[in-house]
């Protein structure tokens, strides 16, 4: 049992698992932001274009609810296909997908830019100083004088 927990700990503490967990958490928060964008900003505009209707309330009723006539209690709830909520979810998905596309596009552009930046040119090898050259010339002249 102890070995099992040790293996699990090693698995859970790997960098890619932790990175994935952070991504899921951030993705969930990002999803809430986009859902708010869709519900609070985009869908009201679409509602105005469709005559002021709340898009999420569009539905096909397959079976009406059965209501007690005297107490107004619902005996059997209605059965409906809530296609407006589905359309809203599709719009939500498309916006999330578009935002992720833009984020990845920006990240790829930054990565390409980083790769394209030329590396600093290597410094030219330091040549001999003037004194070193004169010393070499002197030594060569001595060698030639000694050979004659």
Characterization of this structure:
It is a single chain. With 148 residues, the protein is mainly α. It has one domain (2-117): Large-conductance mechanosensitive channel, MscL, domain 1 (Non-ribosomal Peptide Synthetase Peptidyl Carrier Protein, Chain A, Orthogonal Bundle), CATH 1.10.1200. The protein is built from four helices and four strands; from the N terminus they run H-H-E-E-E-E-H-H. The protein has helices at 2-12, 15-49, 83-116, 130-147, and strands at 60-63, 66-67, 74-76, 79-81. The strands form two sheets. Strands 1-4 form a two-stranded antiparallel ribbon. A two-stranded antiparallel ribbon has the order 2-3. Helix 2 packs across helix 3. The longest helix is centred in the N-terminal third of the chain and has 35 residues, at 15-49. The protein is elongated and about 130 Å long.
């Amino acid at each position: 049992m102890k070995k099992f927990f040790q293996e699990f700990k090693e698995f859970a503490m790997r960098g890619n698992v932790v990175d994935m967990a952070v991504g899921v958490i951030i993705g969930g928060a990002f999803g809430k932001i986009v859902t708010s964008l869709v519900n609070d900003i985009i869908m009201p505009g679409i509602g105005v274009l469709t005559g002021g209707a709340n898009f999420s309330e569009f539905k096909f009723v397959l079976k009406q609810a059965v209501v007690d006539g005297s107490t107004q209690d619902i005996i059997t709830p209605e059965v409906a296909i809530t296609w407006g909520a589905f359309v809203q979810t599709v719009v939500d998905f498309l916006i999330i997908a578009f935002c992720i596309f833009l984020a990845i596009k920006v990240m790829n552009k930054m990565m390409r830019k980083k790769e394209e930046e030329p590396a600093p040119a290597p410094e030219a090898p330091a040549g001999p100083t003037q004194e070193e050259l004169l010393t070499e010339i002197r030594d060569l002249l001595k060698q030639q004088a000694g050979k004659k």
